[in-house]
Design brief:
CATH class: Mainly Beta
Radius of gyration: 16 Å
Strand content: 25-35%
CATH superfamily: Alpha-ketoglutarate-dependent dioxygenase AlkB-like
Structural class: alpha+beta
Number of strands: 13
Mean pLDDT: 93
CATH architecture: Sandwich
Number of helices: 2
Bound molecules: N-(carboxycarbonyl)-S-(naphthalen-2-ylmethyl)-L-cysteine, fe (iii) ion
Largest sheet: 7 strands, antiparallel
Low-confidence stretches: 214-225
């Protein structure tokens, strides 16, 4: 398929790219899949090791899911709420994530987990690094759905200057390789209504958690182009 919006590509820095509108066509189907996943694994507000309840509600699909409680952050094969394995990652998720990763020079890409974040007005994600994954090079792919938000994009150190990017439904960001440990976050969501998600923004983040899977014979780290 010929990619739509091919020119809408913003290189943030080496290893990080914003693909505006990359998932615009698929957005309604993705939102439906999220709703169906959330029936089996509900969105919940996790507690951080420091004892704070996150303003963003989260759930997961894939081989493992990201969870947090008073004992720490980790990837878990089962939903701690139900004890059941996380719902499988839909084929449409995998295909989109792999296509976006390839567009950013990170092919092949076979993510282990998709963390889904749901924001309502006021919900935010403070500046952080994603560092609970074993593979330090494989990218994270982010898909924004529903209400717009402001991404905060810093540097390798917490104190580095932060740039802001407004992202809309269908925008996709990919960052890996040299940009994998950049500090990032999301500014408090503004009130609004979106035809696909109502008063919410949903963000999917795909992660390669394991360095390589048993039985695949290696080829652990994709190379950035
Ligand atoms: C790309 N999620 O779950 S994707 C996370 O929107 C997480 O829910 C965020 O960080 C979310 O760990 C955002 C990360 C992100 C943040 C800022 C960016 C990607 C970016 C700024 C520019 C480009
Ligand atoms: Fe993050």
């Amino acid at each position: 398929m010929i990619p739509l919006f091919d020119n809408d590509r913003e290189q943030l820095e080496d290893g990080a790219v914003l693909l505006r509108g990359f998932a615009a066509v698929e957005a309604p189907a993705l939102v439906e899949q999220v709703a169906s996943i959330a029936q089996a694994a509900q969105f919940r507000h996790l507690v951080t090791p420091g004892g704070y309840t996150m303003s963003v509600a989260m759930t997961n699909c894939g081989r493992v899911g990201w969870v947090s409680d008073r004992t720490g952050y980790r990837y878990a094969p089962a939903d701690p709420e139900t004890g059941a394995p996380w719902p499988a990652m839909p084929a449409a998720f995998l295909e989109l994530a792999a296509r976006a990763a390839a567009e950013a020079g990170f092919a092949p890409y076979d993510p282990d987990a998709c963390l889904m974040n749901r924001y309502v007005a006021g919900a935010k994600l403070g500046l952080h690094q994603d560092r609970d994954e074993e593979d330090p090079w494989a990218p994270i792919v982010s898909v924004s759905l529903g209400l717009p938000a402001v991404f905060l994009w810093g540097g390798q150190r917490r104190a580095d200057a932060v740039r802001r990017f407004r992202v809309e439904c269908g925008d996709v960001a990919v960052w890996g390789g040299p940009a994998r440990f950049v500090y990032h976050g999301v500014a408090p969501l503004k009130d609004g209504q979106h035809p696909l998600t109502g008063a919410a923004r949903i963000n999917l983040t795909f992660r390669k958690v394991f360095r390589c899977r048993a039985g695949t014979g290696g080829d652990p780290t994709p190379k950035a182009v």
